[in-house]
Write the structure tokens for this entry.
Amino acid sequence: MERRRRLVKLGLVFFLFFYLPLLLRLGWLTVVRGPELARQAWKQQTWAVGLEDIPRGQIYDRNLKPLTDSYTDWRIIVFPALVKNKVHTAMRLANLLGQPLEEMLARFNGEAVILPYPVSQEAWQSVHAYRWPGVMLKPVTFRYGPHPLAANVLGYLGYPDQKRLSQLPRGDYRRGELLGRAGLEALYDRELRDVSPEGVAAVVKDGQGRMIKGLQGQNGGYQASKRRRHLVLTLDARVQRLVETVLDRRQLRGAVVVMKMDGDLLALASRPTFHPAQLPAQPEPLQFVDRTMWPTEPGSVFKLLVAAAALEEGLVTPQTWIECSKVPGVKANVPHPKGGHTLQEALAYSCNPYFVWLGRNLGADKLYSYQRKLQLLTAVVTGYPHAYQQPDWNRVWQDNLTNLSIGQGQMQLTPLQVARLTALIARGGIDIQPRLVQEIRDDFGRVESRFAPAQPQRLLSEATARQLQGMMRLVVSQGSGQLAELAPGVAGKTGTAQRSNGQLNCWFTAFYPTRQPRVVLTVLVEGGESGGKTAAPVAREILQGLANLY
């Protein structure tokens, strides 16, 4: 009995120190390293080329349309080791594809190559019919098409620098892999990255490097190491394309924000822009900047906040009249037929003296508190943790109250902040944080992460908001924003700001239609004559396009 116990103990010890480590090692190699080892073994046994230029998760609009303009097209693939007569084959392909023979021959080196030329119907039929050894036709997927949308928001890819490499876990980077360098591509790089193309053209070889007949051109082996993940945005590709088309046709510099009343962003357009696959060697200043979230002088659109504070504090009503021509220290910028204006007239015609008078009576502390209360000190967007360095606004207000009251001097806001303020008024005093990203989902449509809409919160009384709505309607029906008018009615505010470089910022922000509004639109044009003459017509064209879309 005692001997049996000793044998059992000895067997257990032998198992723990010999078999268990072997089993654990086998399990680790099979389960953890198995897929990777299988891929490595498959690579050693094949000549292969991925049928995807950048293996990476997609960025979709709200209707699951790729904003990258991703597309699939036929390409000719050459396996040089299998080509019997390289000069003859290169000559035939050069003639078919209309390329120089020297350039084509240079590509007949290495193991496998995708010829980077579009394939005509004639070329497709010839290659398909003659079946030259080492040459095949395959559909290849390209991440960026000729017309990607919202490039300044999506960002771009590039090879990582040493700083970026040091931030990655050891062994996490594959040589030649492109990583996100800006925008959503960078912010969600970990989620979007993938090391394996979805399809592969391959030729299987034996231990001596000879092709195994019957297996050429088969897909397989490069199975994805994980489920690919994709971003789904709130943007609508149709709206984004509409806005970008208007900006490009008019050759404008600036930004446009289109937002639904529930806070979802439908379009974020910035000009100048870039093509993510064709980055300029020497970009012009701020070409890569997303101007929709870049602070700049707001001019008279800031008068909406000053008016809101004055109404909320009971300082004035829409009918309060003052003698604008006698406000000291400020020049009249509009005519005063009666020597002065009511508040609603002052907003409609954008009278500077009236709002300087309001600012001085409210005081710097009160205006600063409303700037904070109405969310004009934050650049937060749901799903897009992008922010800029905020100045010390409390000190800024104390330094120059006169200029700041009319959105000049050191006052700076982003187009998205202006759109958020406009939406707050259109909703009757209810604020909702803007949202850009809806969810992250896998290849099967399963949602892995969801970015819920922000909770609404009341920041202005309904009475004040309704008064502001009426005054904004007067801006378009009778005042400085008449060139934005569109049935059944637009409510908005113009703005013209002198920038530090001497150029003008021309603004127009609006909600449409006036009753039961559906969208908020903010337009910023860098350069031009004024908000009413330059930005308002742009807004009208975009609103007309939106009306046709919806």
